[in-house]
Write a structure and sequence with these properties.
The chain is α/β, with parallel strands linked by helices and about 375 residues long. Among the domains are: about 60-165, 3-Layer(aba) Sandwich (Rossmann fold), CATH 3.40.50.2300; about 170-290 and about 320-355, Rossmann fold (3-Layer(aba) Sandwich). It has ten helices and eleven strands. It has helices spanning about 20-30, 80-95, 110-120, 135-145, 170-185, 200-215, 230-245, 255-265, 290-305, 340-355; strands spanning about 65-70, 95-100, 125-130, 150-155, 165, 190-195, 220-225, 250, 265-270, 285-290, 325. The strands form two sheets. The chain has a six-stranded mixed beta sheet, sandwiched between helices. Strands 2-1-3-4-5 form a five-stranded parallel beta sheet, with helices on both faces. The protein is globular and about 55 Å long. Residues about 1-65 have low confidence and may be disordered.
Length: about 375
């Protein structure tokens, strides 16, 4: 217990007690041991029945529903924010949260306004969101409302007392996806279309390249950044340019690339969530991020009254179930060789056991095409 007070004052010795006080003390001891104590006062009020708890008894924190708001800069269809939203929807379906959200908030100043309005009007216990591009705004509002847990995707650190951070640490399954791509390519040329050349994206792309080169040292990887988090048309155009340059397998770090692969009867690898349903004959697997462990941990903390600001990084890694390579779709193209599937599975086992660690390289990939800002 924090701040428990100490008792003060001198304890009386037995020699200090007067006879009457001694009798009273003995009577109290008898009552404590279950003996009856005579009383001339009115009978005490009956205790509430077991099925009728006293009105003053607080509800069990575990039985409470936590009010949660999601603040998303992009449309919810964009996979990054979509993964967070899906995890919160699951908690809502389980009856643990009262969840509402707003998407497409953008990056022109509206995030700060929305967060402040929600904090004042709805007073949620937790606000989840994406601070990339809105870092200062999210932290500024969080500092003004210390009783609300702010849990945001961020490349920076946590801030006391209430601002926790997370990110999609999916470089491990990205390495496995690279192994698949390197083993399947016929042209020895792969294409990757990413959002921005920021550390959070670079580490995924570099891991993908590393996995591809492990199984195929001859492979060349063409990388194009869009300078946008959600522009499906531009992503598709960039992918088509890579196809024109010889790429026969595409890693869709951004939404829109799979459409280009499907139209050209090529193999694609999805990102953030399992995107097989977008093109069942083309998507061989996906680099998936699972926010459920992170969200469940935060909700448990809030329910227990023990929430603290922290870096939630570990919950987005393979070890805690926060990242995974989706099931390999062996029916794509001309099929996936069994020995390649075995290599990928063995590497996945090594990652889970801790005997193989994927390098975290957050530098811009060499030769990447980056449009002018």
């Amino acid at each position: 217990m924090v701040g428990q007070r100490r008792r003060s004052g001198r304890s009386a010795s037995m020699s200090d007690l007067r006879p009457i006080a001694l009798v009273a003390l003995l009577m109290l001891l008898a009552a404590a041991c279950g003996g009856a104590t005579p009383s001339t006062s009115a009978p005490a009020a009956s205790a509430p029945a077991a099925s009728e708890p006293a009105a003053s008894t607080p509800a069990s924190p575990a039985a409470a529903t936590v009010k949660v708001f999601g603040a998303f800069a992009t449309e919810i269809e964009e996979p990054w924010d979509g993964v967070i939203h899906a995890a919160l929807e699951d908690e809502k379906a389980a009856g643990r949260v009262d969840y509402s959200f707003q998407d497409a908030i953008g990056y022109s100043g509206d995030m700060e306004r929305v967060l402040r309005e929600v904090a004042e009007r709805d007073q949620p216990a937790v606000i989840f969101g994406d601070a990339f591009g809105n870092e200062e705004a999210a932290r500024r509002v969080a500092a003004e409302y210390p009783d609300i847990a702010f849990v945001f995707g961020s490349g920076a650190g946590p801030a006391e007392p209430n601002f926790s951070v997370f990110d999609n640490w999916i470089h491990e399954p990205a390495y496995l996806a690279g192994m698949l791509a390197g083993g399947l390519t016929k042209s020895n040329t792969l294409g990757v279309v990413g959002g921005y050349p920021v550390p959070e994206v670079n580490r995924i792309v570099n891991a993908f390249i590393g996995g591809a080169k492990e199984v195929n040292p001859k492979v060349e990887v063409k990388v194009t950044f869009l300078n946008s988090w959600f522009d499906p048309a531009a992503a598709k155009e960039a992918a088509l340019a890579q196809v024109g340059a010889g790429a026969d397998i595409l890693f869709a770090e951004r939404f829109g690339v799979i459409e280009a692969a499907s139209e050209n009867h090529l193999i694609a690898i999805g990102n953030m969530s399992d995107q097989k349903e977008l093109a069942p004959q083309n998507v061989v697997s996906s680099v998936t991020w699972n926010m459920k462990p992170t969200v469940a941990y935060v909700i448990d903390q809030v329910m227990a009254g023990s929430y603290t600001a922290q870096d939630l990084k570990d919950f987005s890694m393979v070890g805690k179930g926060g990242a995974e390579l989706a099931e390999i779709n062996t029916s794509v193209g001309g099929g996936v060789p069994a020995d390649l599937v075995t290599k990928v599975q063995e590497k996945e086992t090594a990652i889970k056991s801790g005997t193989f660690r994927v390098d975290i390289n957050e530098a811009t990939p060499p030769g990447a095409s980056v449009p002018a800002s």
